[in-house]
Amino acid sequence: VMESSPLELPADTLQRIASELRCHPTDERVALRLDEEDKMKHFRECFYIPKKQDLPPIDLSLVDKDEDAIYFLGNSLGLQPKMVKTYLEEELDKWAKMGAYGHEVGKRPWIIGDEVILGLMTDIVGANEKEIALMNGLTLNLHLLLLSFFKPTTKRYKILLEAKAFPSDHYAIESQLQLHGLQVEKSMRIIEPREGEETLRMEDIIEVIENEGDSIAVILFSGVHFYTGQLFNIPAITKAGQAKVGVIGTELLGQQEADNTADGKLHTYNSGILSYYSSFKM
């Protein structure tokens, strides 16, 4: 049996298992083997998985209504962890019994609620505690970052991003450009895949940075593309951007993305990169 590599690409994993089983990569046996090898499969029990009978688009005459649904929307909204209700009820109970004293006492004093889990976030996002702030929501945090770091001039006024970025990111960028009185069509530089292709080529991204960098104020890329799942080489984009552009930002959507994007070492990227993180897309 061939050993898997920690750097093995998904396509290579499918080919490896198919070769071991002497079948096509789309054979059901490959899927079953993947389930067997999944070191994180026990986490499935930590989440509520919708039943088919509870989902509006399901034709119940075609399925077993009591079966779990197959959920493909983790990049939009993750499933509910089973402990959420317990944690919320603990805080509501504390509020009922103590009122404002809940700010300072209990397992999770509200006044330092964000600090309680900073230690857990260091490994997830690959940064030191002093480099992490937990607050608000994704789009609001992006607005706050851009208000601080997007300072357009007559020569440097563009924001560079990938086509079909996460929708709220796209809208936030449009809003920021309009706030500064800029024309979105001229200031929002969107990199599209080549004709007939679904993903972006790194050489095309680097070429745009090198050719247009003098007019780009901010590069804003996701670590993993929301729509296609493409893993972007953020270190390479950062290096190219720091040579030509003022600020580089990246959105990290989840545990695996942070690991793959930054090798667990976001803080080693240099001071020119800002990262904003969304924890609800898992």
TrEMBL record:
GO cellular component terms listed in the entry, alphabetical order: cytoplasm
GO MF terms, alphabetically ordered: kynureninase activity; pyridoxal phosphate binding
A biological process term (GO) from this entry: NAD+ biosynthetic process
Keyword tags: Hydrolase, Pyridine nucleotide biosynthesis, Pyridoxal phosphate
Coiled-coil segments on the chain, per record: none
Protein name: Kynureninase
